[in-house]
Amino acid sequence: MPSPRSSRERRAGSGGGRLEFLSLVSQRSPGAPDSPSHRKEPGSAAAAPLPEEDCMKLNPSFLGIALSSLLAIDLWASKRLGVCAGEDSAWGSARPLMKVVEVSGHGIPWLLGTFYGLCQSDSSAAREVLLNLLFALLLDLVLVAVVKGLVKRRRPTHNKMDMFVTISVDKYSFPSGHATRAALVCRFVLRHLVLAVPLRVLVVLWALIVSVSRVMLGRHNMTDVLFGLLLGYALYSVVEYCWLSPLSAPALFALWSH
Ligand SMILES: CC(C)=CCC/C(C)=C/COP(=O)(O)O
């Protein structure tokens, strides 16, 4: 009867006459080429882990999928809501009215109107408010131009580029300059003009109508307008933080005192 042999002895005898050595050193250091953890056994279930960057490529992040889905919904919904994008669109007959709304939120009437008011103002309170409104409108123009130039998102394909006075970055649509201005002016006017409640409601309605009209005219996607509203709202806080007063900017106020 054959005597029971140790596994080491059996292994040594299974090589067809060749000896296979199992060094203690390779057993103890897992990085060594002969170590069991380093060797790949054909058909073994324990495969070497993939580098992290390969895993990232194979598994697109949840955020990436959520963003692409949001953009797809945005493009689809904005196209459907662009009911005044052309004369032959579903609400094409309302296009001239929408273009009047567009001019009411344009930068030029607001800049000229504020400048004129500043020249005509006869109280220091009016001068202070109008000078800050002028500063806010200029800051808004610069900020929107910078973001448009950085993001470079094209206007929707169904937009007809027949807008009243544009600058070069206005071929881009993110964010909507009309929406930022509407939110900024709305917050500014509600804070610094003493108005009766119906007029305050009208100011808010005007800002909303200007914003919605951007999508209806086909000028923007919805995300351009939503971001624009947020940006304009936030910009007002910056303006209030940097508020110009006869104390903080005496030279500027000296220019306008008669
Ligand atoms: C030329 C001046 C002083 C302002 C340009 C105003 C303008 C055309 C903004 C674009 O608005 P949207 O981004 O909402 O289309």
From TrEMBL:
What keywords does the record list, in alphabetical order?
Answer: Endoplasmic reticulum, Hydrolase, Lipid metabolism, Membrane, Nucleus, Transmembrane, Transmembrane helix
Indicate the segments forming the Phosphatidic acid phosphatase type 2/haloperoxidase domain, all copies: 129-240
Tell me where it mainly resides. endoplasmic reticulum
> What chemistry does it catalyse, as a reaction equation?
(2E,6E,10E)-geranylgeranyl diphosphate + H2O = (2E,6E,10E)-geranylgeranyl phosphate + phosphate + H(+); (2E)-geranyl diphosphate + H2O = (2E)-geranyl phosphate + phosphate + H(+); 1,2-dihexadecanoyl-sn-glycero-3-phosphate + H2O = 1,2-dihexadecanoyl-sn-glycerol + phosphate; (2E)-geranyl phosphate + H2O = (2E)-geraniol + phosphate
Q: What class of enzyme is it?
A: hydrolase
Q: Name one GO cellular component term.
A: nuclear inner membrane
The Gene Ontology terms for molecular function here are: sphingosine-1-phosphate phosphatase activity
EC numbers, comma separated: 3.6.1.68
By sequence similarity, the record places it as follows: Belongs to the PA-phosphatase related phosphoesterase family.
Its name, as the record gives it, is Polyisoprenoid diphosphate/phosphate phosphohydrolase PLPP6
Protein species of origin: Otus sunia
Q: What is the lineage of its organism?
A: Eukaryota, Metazoa, Chordata, Craniata, Vertebrata
